[in-house]
Amino acid sequence: MADTEGVVTSTVENLTESVANAPVKPPATPEGILVSCGSLFLMAIIPVFIGSFRSVTYHKEQQESGEKPETMSHKDAAMFPIIASCALFGIYIVFQIFSKEYINLLLTAYFFFLGVLALAHIAGPVFSKLFPASFPNQEYHLILTQGAPPKKEDLLNYQFDRKDLVTLAICGIIGLWYLIKKHWIANNLFGVAFAVNGVELLSLNRVTTGCILLGGLFVYDIFWVFGTNVMVTVAKSFEAPIKLVFPQDILERGLAADNFSMLGLGDIVIPGIFVALLLRFDMSLKRNSRVYFYTGFVAYCSGLLLTMFILHYFKHAQPALLYLVPFCLGLPIGVASLKGDIKAMFEYEDHPDTSKTEETAKTK
């Protein structure tokens, strides 16, 4: 199932929160709130859109190579909110016992390396087109094996070139900027990179699995935001680029602004992997149409706008999945019912187990 990083990301960040009413800061102006919300909205929907199309390419490459990706089973999806709850409460206890300065120091170093790699992964194809034809490029191939033939296994098999090294160096400079200054722009560059990579690489194989996962996290988010102060406390204490932030006082203070609204990456990646699945379902129908993807994408945008409206109306932290899940599940399933595709939607599978299919055919 998902690794620790994935659990921490989805655990901590299924939260959208405004801190404009903090007692030590002046109230945000309506214009500042509008700019902040609009910026967070764009930074949320762009990774979902780009990541969805990148997921199609990623799955095609895996199918061509014969490699079957790790996907979440129904059991994994059902257990995920429970595991996430345990991780969230564990982090909360750690922050109560130990100094958060030392904990965040370790987190900063950890996410520095992850952020540089994530940013390089999405920036590489863009940067490679900017190099002139005269650039002295050279390819490299790192191979690390274990054992002797015929039991030899590849532990590391990585191909890269000088363009990749330059890209990594540029991303490393951004990483140092984040490491030294913790500036909100550097944080957002890493956050957007994490979100795009998450939507691209995390895989839901079936719509039913997505319904179980989103339904479970729907309850999880409501409980930990409205039922306790655990998630809000952890989100405020957890200093890592696993949330997008934008200042509400940027019009008054420019880049030095520090009165932030925040949007957790879980509120982008969790619905985003379901929207990406809808795009792959569209492709499987071979109708030259992306109706389910655009329905899911519009649903996500609508749910996010509603979240932001309620957030600022009630001036209280909101569980974003409370609004996102009904939109992201309800609209695409409703459209599929109207178009007569509901059976095909729930039977669709990205990477079906061909061995089971062959065994069934032989039995018949």
UniProtKB/TrEMBL annotation:
Is Hydrolase found in the keyword set? yes
Subcellular location(s): the record lists: Endoplasmic reticulum membrane
- Ranges annotated as spanning the membrane: 33-56, 77-99, 105-127, 165-180, 211-235, 260-279, 291-314, 320-338
Single GO MF annotation: aspartic endopeptidase activity, intramembrane cleaving
Q: Which InterPro entries match?
A: Peptidase_A22B_SPP, Preselin/SPP
Which example biological process does GO assign this protein? signal peptide processing
Membrane-protein topology: Multi-pass membrane protein
- Decide whether keyword Protein biosynthesis is in the record: no
An example of a Pfam family matching this protein is: Peptidase_A22B
Q: Name one GO cellular component term.
A: lumenal side of endoplasmic reticulum membrane
List the keywords (alphabetical). Endoplasmic reticulum, Hydrolase, Membrane, Transmembrane, Transmembrane helix
Q: Which SMART domains match?
A: PSN
Q: Which domain of life is it from?
A: Eukaryota
Q: Which family does it belong to?
A: Belongs to the peptidase A22B family.
Full protein name? Minor histocompatibility antigen H13
UniProt organism field: Candidula unifasciata
